[in-house]
Amino acid sequence: MGGGTYTLLVELPTATTLSVGALGEHLFPAGAYAYTGSALGPGGFSRVRRHRRTAHSDHDVRHWHVDYLLGETTARIDRVVHAPGVDAECAVARRLPAGPVDGFGASDCGCSSHLSTAGTLDGLIERVVRAYDAEATAVTVDPEG
Question: N or C end of the chain, less CB within 10 A?
Answer without folding.
Answer: C
